[in-house]
Amino acid sequence: MGDANLFSDTFTLTSINAQKYDRVARLAAHTENGDTSLTLDVNTELFPCNLGDRLQILLASTLSLDGSKDDDGKGWRDVGRGEASVADEYDYVCHGKIYRFEEGDDENM
């Protein structure tokens, strides 16, 4: 058991592209200091967004508060039903894999 939180920061939405899919928009956002950018597809019917909105983003390896793996046979939709989870602290929760991750240049770190 350990800290399941891999990354957390606040982002400001800079662009919303809803042209390709129904009810899904590709959001582009940057941190306040501009050192991290994010592109994320979101179901805007469930979680409507506007330019300039601030979003608190957390990447975690599990939704369990104690950091234990979610390998007890439950699906991700079952986590938190009747028990507290990290998802309780957020309005919108995604499950999946990170498609692409790009590290910045050493001079920008």
From TrEMBL:
Q: Which GO terms describe its biological process?
A: DNA-templated transcription
Molecular functions (GO terms):
DNA-directed RNA polymerase activity
| Major site of localization recorded for this protein | nucleus
The entry's keywords: DNA-directed RNA polymerase, Nucleus, Transcription
Give the superkingdom in one word. Eukaryota
Its annotated compartments are: Nucleus
Q: Which SMART domains does the entry link to? A: RPOL8c
- Which parts form a coiled-coil structure per UniProt? none
What InterPro entries does this protein's entry cite? NA-bd_OB-fold (IPR012340), RPABC3 (IPR005570)
One Pfam family in the UniProt entry: RNA_pol_Rpb8
Nucleus is among the record's keywords: yes
What is the similarity comment for this entry? Belongs to the eukaryotic RPB8 RNA polymerase subunit family.
Q: What is this protein called?
A: DNA-directed RNA polymerases I, II, and III subunit RPABC3
Q: Which organism is it from?
A: Alectoria fallacina
Organism classification: Eukaryota, Fungi, Dikarya, Ascomycota, Pezizomycotina
